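Supplementary Note 3. Input sequence used for the single-chain structure prediction.
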Amino acid sequence: MATKLYVLTIFILLISIAGNAAAAEAQQCPSKSKGECHDKAQSLKLKLIAISSILVTSMIGICLPILSRKVSALQPDKDLFVVVKAFASGVILATGYMHVLPDSFDCLRSECLPESPWRKFPFTTFVAMLSALLAMMVDSFSMSYSRKSFLRRAAAREEDEESAKNNRCPDQLEHFGHGHGIKTEDGLNGKDSQLLKHRVVAQVLELGIVVHSVVIGLSMGASDNPCTMRPLIAAICFHQFFEGMGLGGCILQTEYGSKIKAVMVFFFSTTTPFGIALGIALSNVYSDHSPTALIVVGLLDAASAGLLNYMALVDLLAADFMGRKLQANVKLQTWSYIAVLLGIGGMSLMAKWA
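The predicted structure, written as discrete structure tokens, is reproduced below.
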């Protein structure tokens, strides 16, 4: 049920973005000068290259951590995994602050929009703040719902075990297991509680990434400027690869079955190419500078930024750095901070092109 709801949420989100993009009115605001570097045919070739390269890069990035179970050094309990995850978390944090948030400011403070209310009220930070709060609410309510679901299943298992135990002969009882792990005050053992947290984090994080990815793809697909597109493709591939590693690390810790993992990999890998394809299809009616497009993209970017920043700081970085593993190992903690700074630095540098 949770999987179907998750898939439906992402599907509705993609459809709503597509619908709003299609409704953008291209004639209400003059676009920027096209300049000398305007070649629709060349741009189309680059867009097709972008679709394939970004798709492959995204799949490699998100699948590497998931497939790392076969590599002992990259197991979730190993130090190397912690450092790599810290790097990827830095990438996600920088994505929110250095890429998504500035884009939202640019859109919602554009001269193509009326001064009132768009340039008289900080809509970007307001929506980002609400989005971060919404992410915390989703975190909280999802954990509560999942705990109740876990407890119901655990109670059913215990009843079955008790029934089976009562039906056994006395000499068989000594071989029957008694341990169920140490339970916390909410009725879950520590492993179950941590597993629930990992699952909520992975799903909410992917929702934020999906929004941003479609918007990026849509902008690229609607552009006819091959000069800016070439470095943009390289930057987005870098971005998707390391963002995928961060998300893949979260998915690895969820211990989901192969079906749910495949669904999450599919949505992450295809949303940016989907956005590019959508931009190509709407290139005759969609304009980056139409008021409708600016408002829709600006608000979506602001919401995505708030969500990504919350998830990166609270659910990824704070959870790891305040956890027992890093608190007990100052050397590992230092290397992890260096990895975070490298991730932030790399993505901040990419902000020049994407």
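The mean pLDDT is 78. DSSP finds twelve helices and no strands in the chain.
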